[in-house]
Structures are given as C-alpha cells and as structure tokens.
Specification:
Blueprint: E1 8-12, H1 17-28, E2 32-37, H2 40-52, E3 56-61, H3 67-81, E4 86-89, H4 104-132, E5 135-140, H5 153-172, E6 176-183, H6 197-210, H7 214-226, E7 235-238
Parallel strand pairs: 1-2, 1-4, 2-3, 4-5, 5-6, 6-7
InterPro entries: KR_dom (IPR057326), NAD(P)-bd_dom_sf (IPR036291), Sc_DH/Rdtase_CS (IPR020904), SDR_fam (IPR002347)
Family: Belongs to the short-chain dehydrogenases/reductases (SDR) family.
Domain Ketoreductase: 7-186
C-alpha cells in the first residue's frame, strides 16, 4: 500500500483547515496519511479525494480529549504498518471571550483539546518511536503562544503550554525529532465555533482579511518532515505579511 520511501503520517484534527491541507500536501508527496477527527463524514470525503488524486490515505474517528481514543488511533496504525514515522498533533479549538464572561465550559474544552489532546498524542506515540529509535512529533502551536491578547487569555495559555511541553520534549529527545509549528491568522474554521459571538465575529473578519491559506502551513510542515533524520527543525513561527 505504501512505497519504501513513504512515511506513515498520523494527523489529528484532519477534517478541515490546516489538518486537511496538510493531508493533501503530504499525500501528494507520496506519504501515507492516517487521518483522525470526530467528523467522519468530512474525513471520508477527504480520503476519497486524496485517493482519486493518486494518494494513499485512510481515516478513523478520533476524539483527542479521550486518551483511549488517541491510543486506539495511534496503536492501530502502528499495528497495521509496524511503525509510525510522524505524528502531527493538530486538533485545536479557540473560543474567545473575556475572562469575566466566565465561559468555564469553553475554558475546559480548550484545555482538553489543545493541551491534553496534544499530551495524549505524545503519550501514545513516543514510546513506539523511542522503541524504534526514530520518529517525528509535530505539534501545532500558534502565534498566540508568544503574546497574550485580551479575550484570548485561556486560548493563549493553552498554546503557551503546548510551546513549553514541545520544547521540553525536544530537550529530552535525541532519536525522535520534535517540531513546533506556530501559525498566525490562517484561513480555517477555528473562529467559527464557540466563544462570545461578537468577539468571534471580529476574529473571523481579521482572519479573512489578514490570514494566510492553510496550504502555506502545510508546506512548512512538509518541509520539516522532508529534512534528513539528523536535522530537526525545532520551531517555525509564520504569519502572512499583511498581519505584520
């Protein structure tokens, strides 16, 4: 099913945005992509398109907030192919509001998806990669991991945390490559769910005006993966030129 030179690449949050764009780019590069998300109808359509274009792909339902779901996703791919070359922890949510709005359920969701979801992926994949002596974990951060804006305090906190754990993993790793990719405004569905309606609308307008295409982030991820095993692209921060 896969060529000797292709990599087995797992992508969480693959049903739209950066995840879907990355699936398309990596499948076009000849890698076998294993796509996970909750919206399996979206995944099924994406996989059909990738196969029609000559790529190899599969999908599985995935909830990154569930440790068991993530373990089944990762271990299942490992059992089928005998290895996992790359894990891209991409799933994320951004529900913007001021702290005094006390949207605590949405705070919990951002912590569970953005931070715990990333940790679940690391916990599932890292032992398998270490046992094999090679692998690559790519965590999707955000430019919000480098500054805090009002209405985004909790989202920024989760992305600061992802940045910290990625750097810690990098320092602990010699045989597993570790990359943090931190995009600025990007055309995606990130601003379309949850949060204060007025604040989300303003963020959506900013993303539409200032954002870069998700394919630009996919290209950066592909470049990091394409480096020799002895070269580790540790951190990529990227924004559209219009964002400044």
């Amino acid at each position: 099913m896969t060529s000797p030179h292709s990599k087995i690449v797992l992508i969480t949050g693959a049903s739209s945005g950066i995840g879907a764009a990355t699936a398309g780019r990596l499948a076009a590069d000849g890698h076998h992509v294993v796509l996970g998300a909750r919206r399996v109808d979206r995944l099924a359509a994406l996989v059909a398109d990738l196969r029609l274009a000559g790529g190899t792909a599969e999908y599985h339902q995935l909830d990154v907030t569930s440790r068991d779901s993530v373990y089944a996703f990762v271990r299942g791919a490992h059992d089928r192919y005998g290895r996992i070359d790359v894990l891209i922890n991409n799933a994320g949510v951004m529900a913007l509001s001021t702290l005094d709005a006390l949207r605590t359920d949405e705070w919990d969701q951002m912590i569970d998806v953005n931070l715990r979801g990333t940790l679940h992926g690391v916990a599932a994949a890292l032992p398998l990669m270490r046992a094999r002596g090679t692998g690559h974990i790519i965590n999707i951060g955000s430019s919000a991991a480098y500054r805090v804006d009002p209405t985004a305090a909790v989202y920024c906190a989760t992305k600061y945390a992802v940045r910290a754990l990625t750097e810690g993993l990098r320092q602990e790793s010699r045989d597993v490559r570790v990359t943090l990719v931190s995009p600025g405004y990007t055309h995606s569905e990130l601003t379309e769910h949850g949060g204060d309606p007025q604040i989300q609308a303003a963020a959506r307008a900013a993303a539409e005006e200032l954002g870069m295409p998700a394919t630009a982030v996919a290209d950066a991820i592909a470049s990091a993966i394409a480096q020799p095993d002895t070269v580790d692209i540790n951190e990529i921060i990227m924004r559209s030129t219009t964002q400044g």
